[in-house]
From TrEMBL:
<protein>
    <recommendedName>
        <fullName>PEP-utilising enzyme mobile domain-containing protein</fullName>
    </recommendedName>
</protein>
<dbReference type="InterPro" id="IPR051549">
    <property type="entry name" value="PEP_Utilizing_Enz"/>
</dbReference>
<dbReference type="InterPro" id="IPR008279">
    <property type="entry name" value="PEP-util_enz_mobile_dom"/>
</dbReference>
<dbReference type="InterPro" id="IPR036637">
    <property type="entry name" value="Phosphohistidine_dom_sf"/>
</dbReference>
<dbReference type="Pfam" id="PF00391">
    <property type="entry name" value="PEP-utilizers"/>
</dbReference>
<dbReference type="GO" id="GO:0016772">
    <property type="term" value="F:transferase activity, transferring phosphorus-containing groups"/>
</dbReference>
<feature type="domain" description="PEP-utilising enzyme mobile">
    <location>
        <begin position="582"/>
        <end position="652"/>
    </location>
</feature>
Length: 661
């Protein structure tokens, strides 16, 4: 008997079988044996079945897995044969060992009767931008179609097949635990084949996922850190992007010795959105900023992020005080510039004013870059009203309070800092929608705190004031260029790049954009603003883009504000889409500028892609009692505007209730 079947005990040495090595790692490997071919060939089927039963012990309700050798020549993947009885295994062994190319020995594993089986990917096998656990499998007596369960890394359900057979049979925790075990023991993403026996989840084999190489470069639209939240105009990109590069990233890299990043751009504009270079966030992570982990592609994220850096009196005590003082000085300078605008006929004065605002923008970018990328997020206690008041720029906080009181929204606030966006004082048509905000929600807005906002909120408010000053100046300069025959419309000035603006203003050069070029840029900008853009561009491949135009029937997220809601979906990619918001819509947002919050008061429910429960949109939902689900990563690409949705926010479930209206 010993010569026929040899038990395989955990062993970590290189000569051991892989199942022994996995067992030594603490992975849930079923009881395993080595079966020798020379002993099997001399036995009959009944005798062999009895010998196998004696080795396995227990009752007759047993399930066997036979490792038949490499699935293809040279492959690491074993060809597995699932057998439901001792006699079936005996017949398979006799057939295998009587082949001309029979192996000398094979491995068999025994476990109680199977209830479900499939494969688990520790990372999404197709989407390099998602750190999801993907489980596929078949549940006994639940049909032959494979079911799918997708989990966030923390174990919360991101997506499940209708009726959720895997979740009901096995549940999410065993899969999350197995994925954590595999991630902690292997450097590369794994595809683990599993079997569930009704009590325990077993791993029968695991292999690296060959379709997930480590990318060479990655650009993220979602790593805006409050600076880039929607489509940006060409002129704003060349201004604000240059400010951050020259005033923040370049000095930071020189101080920390990032020589390899000296000639690399931190941002690029694609699909009319700003994408941030993840290599910069990788270096910040190495410097002890664990918040940067989410700004890198999953393949670059360490299993255990570096520990946060220790507190330093100058950096964490003196620097915030100094930043507050600098923000006050910049605010005073901006107010002084706003007391008088240069006349339209004063061409030199207008350009001089543009350069003054440009210098203010560069000084502000040095502070705001430090607040966004190097300073821990503002911590503020209290209820949702107090925390929201602390996080909002003063003008946007005042806009919500004014909405609740029935007064006019602040003139200088708007739907974003970009000068192309209209300000509330210009009475954009979007304001008409706010007349339909329910009275009970208006009353709750008065609870917002008027205390001093945090430094990041102060900087964001100053950035919007700067954008408003630029808008006034640029519209005047646009009128001058129209009168001189250089532009067709004054708003065309927002769709030229800064070097082109210089050529237009100085009437120099032949490489000035013509009317057709500017028209094409405007169409592309508005199209991207309404339709959105991919979340990531990794090795020049876009991820998180809506390509197949198919909706998922069920999406899952994390419950934030319990309740049920239903209504047409309204995807809000930018401030331009707010004119389409109707009372009772279920608003779906990826990123949210704080200037959009008044329109969120119209929603019957909110679906947020972000996971942060303290993001302004989530805090507003808590303040007003709007049913809200957060952490729905792919909502912008799996839902369609005007399709009817049902939200059960207590369960974190979003269901498509009907066809597109």
């Amino acid at each position: 008997m010993t010569a026929l079947i040899e038990p395989l005990l955990p062993a970590a040495d290189a000569a051991a079988e892989r199942v022994q090595q996995w067992a030594a790692m603490g992975l849930p490997v079923p009881p395993s044996w080595r079966v020798r071919g020379d002993a099997v060939r001399s036995m009959g089927a009944g005798e062999l079945a009895d010998a196998l039963a004696a080795a396995a012990g227990g009752n007759d309700e047993r399930y066997w897995v036979l490792h038949q050798g490499p699935a293809t020549p040279g492959s690491q993947r074993e060809s597995l044969l699932n057998l439901d009885s001792d006699r079936a295994l005996a017949a398979a062994l006799l057939q295998l060992f009587h082949r001309p190319d029979a192996p000398a020995q094979v491995i068999v594993q025994s476990l109680p009767a199977r209830q479900a089986a499939g494969v688990l990917f520790t990372r999404h096998p197709v989407r390099q931008d998602l750190e999801h656990i993907v489980v596929e499998g078949v549940v006994e007596h639940a049909g032959s179609d494979p079911a799918r369960l997708i989990l966030h890394r923390d174990g919360h359900v991101a997506f499940s097949s209708q009726d959720d057979p895997l979740g009901q049979c096995v549940g999410a925790p065993p899969f999350t635990q197995l994925a954590d075990h595999l991630r902690s023991r292997f450097d590369r993403p794994q595809a683990g084949e599993w079997i569930y026996d009704g009590r325990q989840l077993w791993l029968v084999q695991t292999l690296p996922v060959g379709s997930l190489p480590r990318p060479d470069e990655a650009w993220s639209r979602r790593a805006g850190f409050g600076l880039w939240q929607q489509a940006v105009s060409p002129l704003w990109y060349t201004l604000a992007g240059r400010w951050l590069k020259t005033a923040f990233w370049r000095p930071l890299g020189e101080r920390l010795g990032w020589r390899e990043l000296g000639n690399i751009e931190p941002y690029r504009r694609q699909h009319s959105h700003i994408y941030s270079n993840s290599r910069f966030f990788q270096r910040l992570l190495d410097e002890g900023r664990p918040e940067m982990n989410e700004a890198m592609p999953p393949a670059w994220r360490p299993v255990t992020p570096p520990a946060p850096r220790g507190r330093h009196w100058r950096r964490d005590g003196l620097r915030p005080w100094l930043a507050g003082r600098q923000l006050r000085n910049l605010s005073n300078q901006l107010q002084r510039l706003g007391t008088s605008d240069p006349a339209l006929a004063d061409l030199e004065g207008q350009w001089r004013r543009l350069m003054q605002l440009d210098r203010l923008g560069e000084a502000l970018a040095a502070i705001e870059g430090w607040l966004a990328y190097c300073q821990a997020p503002d911590a503020h206690g209290g209820d949702a009203a107090a925390r929201l008041g602390h996080l909002l720029p003063p003008a946007h906080r005042d806009a919500l309070i004014a909405l609740g009181e029935g007064s006019a929204l602040p003139d200088g606030a708007g739907l974003g800092a970009d000068p192309v966006m209209p300000r509330f004082g210009e009475q954009p048509p979007e304001l008409a929608r706010l007349l339909d905000v329910p009275a009970d929600r208006l009353a709750r807005l008065s609870a917002l705190s008027r205390s001093m906002p945090g430094l990041a909120a102060q900087a964001a408010g100053l950035r919007e004031q700067l954008g408003s000053a630029l808008r006034r100046l640029l519209l005047g300069m646009g009128q001058v260029l129209v009168a001189r025959g250089r532009l067709v419309r004054d708003e065309d000035i927002f769709f030229v790049y800064f070097d082109e603006l210089w050529l237009l203003w100085q009437e120099q050069g032949s490489r000035r954009p013509d009317a057709e070029t500017l028209g094409s840029r405007k169409v592309r900008f508005l199209t991207d603003a309404y339709q959105g853009a991919p979340d990531w561009i990794i090795d020049q491949i876009a991820y998180g883009a809506r390509l197949d135009q198919r909706e998922r029937p069920v999406l899952n997220g994390r419950a934030l504000v319990p309740g049920k809601a239903s209504g047409p979906a309204r995807l809000v990619h930018s401030g331009w889409a707010l004119s389409q918001v109707q009372p009772g819509d279920v608003l779906v947002l990826d990123q949210c500028d704080s200037g959009w919050l008044p329109w969120l008061c119209l929603a019957s429910g909110l679906v947020l892609c972000g996971h942060d429960p303290d993001q302004p949109a989530a805090l507003l939902a808590r303040l007003l009692g709007i049913p809200c689900i957060i952490g729905v990563d792919d909502a912008m690409h799996c839902l369609v505007s005007d399709s009817l949705l049902q939200l059960d926010s207590a369960a974190g479930v979003i269901t498509r209730a009907g066809p597109t209206t």
